[in-house]
Structure prediction request, 72 residues.
Amino acid sequence: TFPLFERSSVSGDGASPFFQALAKESGVTPQWNFQKYLIGRNGKIIKVYPSNVGPDDPLFRIAIEAALAEKP
Prediction:
């Protein structure tokens, strides 16, 4: 039932509950499109990456690979 392709607000009073929860837990509110939250298997935020970090950034990829390697 999650609207994968529906536009949603990521900050402010109209932010979706999902982004409100991410901002509350991480202390970082999305500033622009492509803000990235790396979430571990346990559902906890590992790290937040700003928009200027690309999906192919070596440090971002290493962090993703390390998170995937963690045991559930």
